[in-house]
Amino acid sequence: MAAVGTxxxxxxxxxxxxxxxxxxxxxxxxxxxxxxLLVAQMQNQDPLSPMDNAQVTTQIAQINTVSGIEKLNxxxxxxxxxxxxxxxxxxxxxxxxxxxVPGDDLTVKDNVGSGTFELGSAADEVQVExxxxxxxxxxxxQLGARAAGINDFDWKPTSTAGAATFRVTAKADGATLTPxxxxxxxxxxxxxxxxxxxxxxxxxxxxxxxxxxxxT
Length: 216
Fold this sequence. Notes:
eight-stranded antiparallel beta sheet; four-stranded antiparallel beta sheet
């Protein structure tokens, strides 16, 4: 009686009908084929050289590992879909509300400019520079010490002509910090593409939902 060789990773891959880098599309079929081949192997094994218990345990563990990975992938995909749905609902609730997102556009109303920025840690020196459309500094002023988090500022110039954007620099105990310039804008609508949720803003185009720092 001819002996049947033990199962290895290549045999498992052939059971799935794929190479080493491709997974089966039918978990139940793979397990069934595995068990049939294992039974046939045990029935046709050489009586003088029977399969070792450790070999059987290892082979069963292999198919269980493959099945477990496929089940885990299915669970992750399910959670991803639920997260996307939840994110879309949260995004829809923002329509018509004001959000704070990254951006350096300067808001000017009634001859008063205003801006927003975020500090990762408290600063004892904060400076704001106002730039024109060409990126040239047309005015700068000090804000003094500011706390960590989101901060606002107002700017009352003699004229706002040419003002377009702003830039913030900060220091703490002599060390330079890197503030993030932010803008406040109103959400007009939302859209989804795959797992990406995008907000359409009134004045600043489209931004990713993940970029929203806060909302009111």
